[in-house]
Amino acid sequence: MELIDKTVLMDSEGIRRALTRIAHEIVEKNKGVDNVVLVGIRTRGVPIAERLAENIEKIEGKKPPVGVLDITLYRDDLSTLAYQPIVRPTELPVDITGKIVVLVDDVLYTGRTIRAALDAIIDNGRPKTIQLAVLVDRGHRELPIRADFVGKNVPTSSKEVISVQLQATDEAENVILREIVEEK
Question: Which of 5, 8, 54, 135 is deepest in the core (most CB within 10 A)?
């Protein structure tokens, strides 16, 4: 199996604009950020959450706390993975009980990652509400999960993959649509 680049969906400027818009939407929907905690899902959800917090600080003059969520042990495919999973700590800077938690991830696909994240969040407290922010929604949901804040909706086929690259994790900054090609 090989991945072939089809098109660049977002460059660094497109990502910046999308995150600025999402930050404004988070502030507007929640009438400020007094009770908001951003929680990034490892790996790429974390730098996205941090950038959203910086954007919100520019808008509101105060930066919401940012947490890190590791969902490894909550995955429903854990028993099918052939490798020994690496579990990293979940780091929540404040008690999330009674807070508005905004889960942040890079790509929303089947919804299974978000289901695992919801379980992990609930194990850490009882938020007032949980919202979801994603950079890209590519469709193909297997669970009834919908993002509250979306940078870009990209309908894809099952033979396509969305690759998000961020400076913080990949030393590049773009969103690429790739096609899965079976080797002959």
Answer: 135
Alpha-carbon distance of 80 to 78, in angstroms, equals: 5
Q: How far apart (Å, rounded) are the C-alpha atoms in residues 77 and 144?
A: 18
pLDDT value at 14 more than 70: yes
Instruction: Give the predicted TM-score (pTM) of the model.
Output: 0.94
Q: Exposed, middle or buried by CB within 10 Å (0-12, 13-18, 19+), for 132? A: buried
Q: Nearest 5°: CA angle at 50, between 44 and 53?
A: 140
Rounded to a whole number of angstroms, the distance between the first and last alpha carbons of the chain is 9
Amino acid at 113: T
Fold of 13-75+89-156: Rossmann fold (3.40.50)
- Please give the structure tokens belonging to residue 96: 């999330």
Residue 49 scores a pLDDT above 70: yes
Contact 100, 127 (CB under 8 A): yes
The pLDDT score that the predictor gives to residue 172 is: 95
Strand partners, 104: 40, 133
Residue with tokens 């396509």: 160
